[in-house]
Amino acid sequence: MLIPSIDLQGGKVVQLVQGDKLAISSDDLDGWIAKFARFPKVQLIDLDAAMSRGNNDALVRQIAAQLPCRVGGGVRSIRRAEELIAAGAQAVIAGSGLFRRGDGTDLSQMIDHDFARSLADAIGMNRLIAAVDSREGRVCIHGWKTVLPLTAVEAVRLLEGYCDEFLYTHVDKEGLMQGTDMAAIKAVASATARKLTAAGGITTRAEIDALDALGIDAVVGMAIYTGSLAID
Predict the structure, then answer these.
(1) N or C end of the chain: which has fewer CB within 10 A?
(2) pLDDT over 90 (residue 168)
(3) Which pLDDT score is estimated for 105?
(4) Catalytic entry in 7, 46, 112, 217
(5) Neighbour-count burial for 131-152, b at 16+ CB within 10 Å, e otherwise
(6) DSSP reduced 3-state for 91
(7) Spatial distance between the Cα atoms of 144 and 16, rounded to a whole number of angstroms
(8) CA 74 to CA 93: how far, in whole Å?
(9) Mean pLDDT for the stretch of residues 58-79
(10) Could you confirm whether 133 is annotated as catalytic?
(11) What does the domain layout of the chain look like in residue ranges?
């Protein structure tokens, strides 16, 4: 299944390359809502909240009221997760808040088990999507700026007791329009019995179909916003 993405920054719909370089900025929120209205799932990320630079809560409420959204960005507390559910999110995406820094000697110590358990208890495992982002083979957090001595495969194994779904983003390919890393995605899928959604460089219908054949949903952003991938 194709899941279109909406990233919010500074009150606008944006697309970034590698999480840093602004490539697309649009004020046409209503237009994108209309374009994505037929999809059973839409991914909505508040980049400002994720980077602790304010939030776009008013827009999140507006979009979630009209589209079936899974929402992420700044989920570092139970209250934030509950606020997103109250705003209309069908599921909450939590990333950096699930991890802690460590030296790699005890992988389990790099998971905030208390927060993960509390979050799952508060909103339900069925509404919690754990985001595992990988850069150069290691999990990265804090807007992809902090790299942990932990692989994505190790991370999903440690977290699968708290969620019903994972969002795996292959950051190395994010926004580059060069295709994704199928081998890396398959490795993560093989490491967990949970549902997996993949993101990061997915560009073509062939990639989406190949992932769908494996039971993996595909989040697509840049390819849709540039018009490279037609969805009409």
Answers:
(1) C
(2) yes
(3) 84
(4) 7
(5) bbbbbeebbbbebbeebbebbb
(6) strand
(7) 12
(8) 9
(9) 96
(10) yes
(11) 2-225
Average of pLDDT values for 123-149? 94
Helix axes 113-123, 78-86, angle to 10 degrees: 30
Q: CB of 132 within 8 A of CB of 168?
A: yes
| Residue at token pair 């602790």 | 52
Candidate list 114, 133, 164, 181, residue with the active-site label: 133
Phi, psi of 56 (to 5 degrees): -125, 45
Alpha-carbon distances, residue 182 vs 5, 9, 220 (angstroms)? 20, 29, 15
Q: Dihedral of the CA atoms 58, 63, 65, 70 (nearest 10)?
A: -110
Whose CA is closest to 105, among 141, 149, 137? 149
Q: What b/e readout covers 196-206, taking b as 16+ CB neighbours within 10 angstroms?
A: bbbbbbbbeee
pLDDT in tens, 34-54: 999 999 999 999 999 998 899
Other CB atoms within 10 A of residue 86 CB: 10
* Angle, alpha carbons 148-135-77 (nearest 5°): 55
Active site residue 7: yes
Is the separation of the CB atoms in 153 and 186 below 8 Å?
no
Kindly state the percentage of the chain with pLDDT values over 70: 100
> In the structure encoding, which two tokens stand for residue 37, read together?
């209205």
CATH architecture for segment(s) 2-225: Alpha-Beta Barrel (3.20)
Q: Which amino acid is at 141?
A: I
Q: pLDDT at residue 170 above 80?
A: yes
pTM of the model: 0.95
